[in-house]
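Just scan my protein:

. . .
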Amino acid sequence: MNSKWPKLMLMSGATSAWLIYDMTTATEAPRQAVAVLQYGLLTCAVFGLVGSLVMFASQK
């Protein structure tokens, strides 16, 4: 069975980790628009990770 869910889990996890690392190691506060964009992208990446985990677990 060739599934796309493991690839999506890997991409979402890597994106989430990169965004969290980028936010925690910032030396100065970003502009409000950039911060909103980062949090929005992080939210989408986490939703993608959770969704792909659920879909992968529900496969037979």
The chain has a mean pLDDT of 88. The first helix runs from residue 5 to 24. DSSP finds two helices and no strands in the chain.
